[in-house]
UniProtKB/TrEMBL annotation, chain B:
Name of the protein in question: Binding-protein-dependent transport systems inner membrane component
Residue ranges of the TM segments: 12-32, 105-128, 149-170, 270-295, 302-322
Signal peptide as annotated in the record: none
Membrane topology classification: Multi-pass membrane protein
Source organism of this protein record: Halomicrobium mukohataei (strain ATCC 700874 / DSM 12286 / JCM 9738 / NCIMB 13541)
Pfam families: BPD_transp_1 (PF00528), BPD_transp_1_N (PF19300)
GO CC terms in record: plasma membrane
Domain ABC transmembrane type-1: 101-323
Amino acid sequence: MSDEPLLSVRDLEVVFHTERERIHAVDGVTFEIREGQTVGLVGESGSGKSVTARSILGLVDEPGRIEGGEILYRGEDLTEDNWADHRGDIAIVFQDPTNSLNPVYTIGNQIEEALRIHQDLRGRAATDRAIELLEDVGIPDAPRRVDEYPHQLSGGMAQRAVIAMALACDPDLLVCDEPTTALDVTIQAQILDLLAELQAEQDLAILFITHDMGVIEDATDWVNVIYAGEVVERAPTEALFDHPAHPYTRALLESIPGRTDPDERLPTIEGEVPTPTGPATDCRFAPRCPEAFEDCRSVAPEHVSLDGDRSAACLLHDPARSDGGERQ
Amino acid sequence: MSRLRYIAKRVALSVPVVWLGTTMTWAIIYLGPIDPATRLLSEGQTQNPAAYEAARTQLGLDQPPLQHYFDWMGSLLTFDLGQTWLLYQGSDVNALILDFLPRTLWLGFWSVLIAVCIGVPLGFYAGMRSNTASDYVASMGGIVWRAMPNFWLGIMLLAVLGSSQAIFGFDWQSLWIELDALTGSPDLSRLHTVEGFLAATKKVLPAAIVLGSASMGNEMRIGRTAVLEVRNEDYVDLARAKGVSERALVWKHIFRNALIPLVPIITSEAFLLIGGSVLVETVFSINGIGLLFFNAATQGDLPLVGTLMYVFILLIVGVNLLQDVLYTVIDPRVGLEGA
């Protein structure tokens, strides 16, 4: 792992200014993606994962602002307003395909727009390439579909068209923000297969953002677990599923159907993600944590390196604080 | 289905609307509490049975009602509108409408155009810069325009223009093109010449601004909301991520989508403006169809009221058709099939 990462997010801080308070939606998120790698960002609703995704693309709207940290793309900091120079290098796929396509232009028009900007293709050549791309993402009858409007496509087909549009930018990194959440389960699997296929063919790096642990297990090489704007655990996917180090990760895994005894009630995590309004002074998961002890409510945990490259931000793994030492 | 067939279908569907509207008009006028025949009689004739019978015969009211209804509908459909009985007594109604309607359409045309050309861009501007000082100024302006009553604004505008020499240091009446008077009907006979066009335009301009003021404010408010909504759509973010320039983002991706909610607003405002405004036409002494309708109604020339109703119904159905066509041009989701 000596080579430079494709994308490196360091201590990212995104703050939303409301009339009453400052909401730290993303509070010191750090992670990396290497070329061709699939990295997962997993967390509950409101944990800051989508804001992280939008930050990478420079799409955070007012009243949100990136107030700290770096987003390094091939070593260049995008937060210094460099997004315009790297448009197309990073593409994004949103959750709801029906909102991702402009309803008043044809699919072809929108793909060709990207082809014109990034590959300098126009006219017939652009249309032909757009049809090829639609075929690549598995849209049947592509020559006819290219002239259709978004509302004429089903959700699954529309998401394929969005992926085709992303590919038209010829990206190195594809950010997928819950790309399958709005789709039927069978279509979900197809889209995941398609992404895996495209990745193998084109050596694409993918940042996969989801709340679905099952998707993470299937699709990613490396996982970052995010909670209330902070990454609480990072680990290779397999290691994370085998030995979750953070109590939050453990709780998430336990709430996946099928992993526990089918006769027992499926465990849930009581409570909800807090809205961080100031710098962390404690462990934000402590109120919901079954293993919390006194220090958890007064000390903000730092990441502790564990075996391999993995780490977790939990006092249970801090030998100085926890009597138990490492639990695994 | 082709666009032409879609339009043909829309036209066909508007036939029952016109029929229903005219039938209701007929019923209100001829089956209503006011006897149209007595209204035609002068003070001295009211006690004269022979004169009353003559008036009934002239109006065709001596026939059975159904027969009268068919005759009346038939003459409307063929635009055989007869002559007036009371107002401009004895003049040809066709000629009267052709004389009065163009002035109102001219006024309506400019008030729609001014409202659209100022209100929509201002609203879009405010929407693109939401919650900034310039947005607040534009939005406040929109509310103020919206709130000013026509009759008041008209009189104020006339007062200011009348003494423009003292207030602004130039005389509005003689500015650029000499006008014969500040108010009055525009001369539409010389529209094909540049000078005639400008003179007719300048003449209705103050009235058009007053008439369009409320719509301008409305369109500004709706335009602002529409842009704000579209700006936050995922597809705009996705286009930005794709590398689309800010200018293309605004004009290609935002503008056309923001127009969709504006179309029905603009056309429904157009009903009001083309239908003419009695108040504005009175204040500016423009002999338009709104004024004619008002006079016909207050003086009891019920046959003329009925005929003018028919003209208004046709205008409204026409604008409605235009709206349907505009929809299909702007928004591909408006199905040509399901219509």
